[in-house]
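Exercise 7. Given the components listed, write out the predicted structure of the assembled complex. Treat all entries as one system.
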Amino acid sequence: MHKVLIFGSGGIKIAEAAEFDYSTSQALKALNEENIESVLMNPNIATVQIDIADKTYLLPLEKNFAEKVIDIEKPGGVLLGFGGQSALSLGVQLEDYLRLNEVKVLGTQIDGIEKALSRGLFKKVIKDKGLPTPPSFSANTEKEALKAAMDIGFPVIVRISFNLGGRGSFVAWNKSDFEKAIGKAFANSEVKNVLVEKCLYHWKEIEFEIIRDKRGNSAAVASLENIDPMGIHTGDSVVIAPSQTLSDAEYQMLRSASLKVAEAIELVGECNVQLALNGEDYYIIETNPRMSRSSALASKVTGYPLAYIAAKLALGYTLDELINEITKKTTAFFEPAMDYVALKVPRWDNEKFEGADTTLGSEMCSTGEFLVMGKSIGEVYEKALHMISEDTISNIGLLVSSKEPVDGIDPFFFQKAEGNDGCLKQKQIDTLAGEFPASTNYLYTTKGYENDVERDEGKKILCIGAGPFRIGTSVEFDWAVMNFAKASKLYGYKAHVLNCNPETVSTDWDESDRLYFDVITEDRISAINSFEGYDGVVAFAGGQTTNSIADKLEKRGIKLIGTCGKSVDLAENRKKFSKLLEELGIKQPEWVEARSMEEVFSFASSAGYPVMVRPSYVLSGSGMSIARNEEELSIARAKVSNEYPAVVSKFLNAAEAEMDCVSDGERVYGVTIEHIERAGIHSGDSTMKIPAERIEEKKKERMHEIALSLARELHIKGPFNIQFLLNDEVNVLELNLRASRSMPFSSRATGSNLMFLAAEAIYKGLQGRGYKELLPEKYFVKSPQFSWSQLRGAYPCLGPEMRSTGEVASCGDSYYDALLKSWLSVKPNRLPKTVHIEGDIPSEVKMNFNRCRVVEGLDLLVTEGHRNDYRLRRECADKNVPMILSSELALEISRAMVWLGDRELNADKSFIKSTKLITLPSYTPEHDSIRKKSL
Amino acid sequence: MKLYLEDGSCFEGISSGADRSVAGEVVFTTSMVGYPEVLTDPSYKGQIVVFSYPLIGNYGLKGEMQSDGIKPAGVVAYRITSPELKDWFRRERVPVIEGIDTRVLVKRIREKGVMKGSIGERIYDAFDYESFNVVDSVSVEKPKVVGKGNRNVLLVDLGVKNAIIKELLKRDLKLIRVPWDYDLKEAFEEHSCKGVVVSNGPGNPALLKKTISEIKKLPEEAPALGICLGAQLLAMAGGAEIYKMRYGHRGANKPVKDILDGKCYITSQNHGYAIDASTLCSKVWMRSLDDSSVEAFIDENRIGVQFHPEGAPGPLDTEWVFDSFLKEAMHA
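Answer.
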């Protein structure tokens, strides 16, 4: 095997998130070790995996594009089990093409995958093994489904074949519930098939993570107990490992059954088996014959590198041939023993969405999660409480405060939080509970007598991770953390990482010199800093939340790497920042800090409508709104009070642009990015384009001048991002003294890793003088990925608050080529045959679509703003109909479709090559990053 | 309350069991599930068991008791989470310490090997595990017939776990359960036994000279299955030597490999002595993937397994060993 193709999971959406960046990255590492050339297909530009692959195709994860990539690359084998359900489904669709082209499916074969994924087939296979499954019927029509429900008796759960995060599945307590939801269920099944099943309300929900090799050797790497019972999606459940309330007989019964499930689908690699338990009765619920959210969790919980091992098994190794990377002495064939407990807590962002249903059910709706470790239930609860902000819904509060047990939750879990007495020790996570010597750098803190490790000697820094992902803070910041850590090593620093998000690459223990898997609080950072004595702590890589404690850390006497905390505070503080802009002669939209609604109204009437209202210290535009008149202003959601003043600014109907930059306080390297959508739409929800050739040269020069003067004034050391409004003048909207969401995109587009440049700027100083623009060799476009379908009831719309959950990008020889491929990489987008246009959309859009012979119908909804069309938009979301929610994007897409005509989009130019910078002994940016080549 | 170790170290915790002092060999188990099974396993007789898993007692007394009561001399844990369990310890007069950083203790035992220890007072020299016949106190007092199966099997009880009895009875056998020092040949012939099972048990196998000589007297063609201590005695009867391991294998996650066909299994284990492969007359069948020690041997009519195919606690992936014994050795 010389070359292997691997599919990623595309843009981050609810239920298919960064856990697949972890699993694909580990699989790629395994390929690298075997000297196999790796070709990755994944449009998710923000992922770390792209750095590890030899070549990455930024293309839609669709059959036709995959076939093109296979034609070009002619791989010997393909890995399907690492990019989530998207990769697996794509593999199943490609079955014939793979066979025809003699591309070997590595790991579990498609036959086995189908057995696991098709509900009906799975049930049969499981029954043949003598294992119990809940009473259920497969149905191909709504009528059949209803009959099945009536036969089984309510409550029933409806599950969908080939589904993702339980999308479209639901629990019905009666006939009317059932009839309401069954339509959406069918709409979400790619094969129009559902399974109606007995609802195991309040049964215990247990998961096992199973590995199995081609020889049939198998082991249960972890057991996970859902504290929330059956009925609540495991992604939305508080989960604990190992199982806490199962007796040995119960545990072994479920473990043995799980191993038999793996055998039934002839697993080669890793699978997750979900079971329900009630006394002596149990049922097999389902299996995922691939790496999953739970398997990522299990890897972090135990230290067992499941995805890496699964990839090696797919390449033909047996478990006893592989070594346990932690002990280096024992083999990979064993079941980890833990001497701690690990608690996973989900995080929701539903409050951001108008109309969103916040009740928990069989469909996953959390956007992220964190994991804490400790030696008792009380200790992990205490740690979890530190990571939960007051506004997040969480069962942890219920578990620690409820006076009496709640139905469906084992009484054991109702325990008080338990503070620690301050004598924290650093303990290793070593897979074997201390039984064998381990030189592992995987650590957490807990009470105890002594540390497992000594202070790490030499120059070293601590990179603070992004914590649980949420809208606005996602995998792009994990990329930043990882890359800055790696870059620091080139300057002689050991890089330690602190993070508590199990879905990330940064929480892989082989990525950093030391990994502290712990809560991200000022106290914990202080404690770890006192133990290790860092040369500096990096707060700018982990995004807004992490960066916002920079000033506080500095005040505690902790040395920060990069821009000083005082400057960060100045940029974040609206008033101080505005004053600075004035002093520097930089234009900004007119604004006022209002402490009462009267002040808000008086500003609006003097400055003129529309106005934008936002609270201070915002993350991803939380609480921001635009008011076009007095009426809209009075219902503006921002709470305005003396204690919580709001910033009200003149809303300029202008183009938006931004710059991703790096500075050493004297020089600036930057990437100028054009936005497709105009002002009023959060930059995270905007379509971005590099090069920014449609911005006038004069304005660009002014932008660069501003970047330089701000960098010098604030002594910026490291990465920063500036948001601009472009009307007749260049206005500055905001300045972020940290890594930005778009930096993986701008880095990959220009071939200059901005985190490596940041390290250069901080540790050594940049080359050259003044401002340097970094330019790409091709056109790059980035598009936002939304999760409308998963956000039950939410109204799909765009505005100053960020609503997308992820992003994708593509590249090509022309702008339209890159735009179309990027837009098509967003799920569920596809080229429309029919289109329905609503609202204030330019007439050119309709004309363009007509030229492409697209007629009226609901293959694509084009609309804009906030309209009285909840039902229409919601129906599109529920039925996976693509939507374009801004008139600017509609115009660009319609023009691109005219450009495309009868041509086919090709794959030839849509790849980027890995720079694998980490392997270069002495990296200098001049060598491969500063390309002055003009387009 | 304190735990004293023979290396001079002392760990202080809270008493959660009987308020009395006890001495024993200090060992650790990494099992995360199945504390009732561990606590009632006669193979822990004479030992102070340290649980590396921090929470013991989460599901009360739900479990399959392996004997008539708690067998370890003492127990050390980070946290005993069930009042029921604490009551049980007190009723059975077993001293228990909680609140200990057990990871530190496990690492010490890992480095220095198992050692003498005591809970309560510093009396660890009061008891020498290696030279004391602990089997005598857990073996059945006089012969007993168990079950109503079709074929008779002689069960040499060195402190047999109930799970082994259950596995044998499942297979339509009648068990002639005899004490460790019984005349095995006579019993075998008297009951027209079709096979012999030598059970698990505690302590130093070298002290069981009587059992070894009784095994030697058994007809050569008598099919035999030895489990754990039983396997060691079968091997010793054939001339093999055993050695004391530094800290043994105790846990439910132990990997073994069938070196004849290459297949690997996760097993439950609880032993502090091992068979020296170079002195073994039988064919080595399985080895530990952790340290290559002998995990099973096989002859035409004799099978010895160092691990516990009956689990309890632990996986049942090697339960088929009982079937093999019936089929291959007993030709049943």
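Discussion: Chain A touches chain B through 50 residues (CB under 8 Å). The radius of gyration of chain A is 27 Å.
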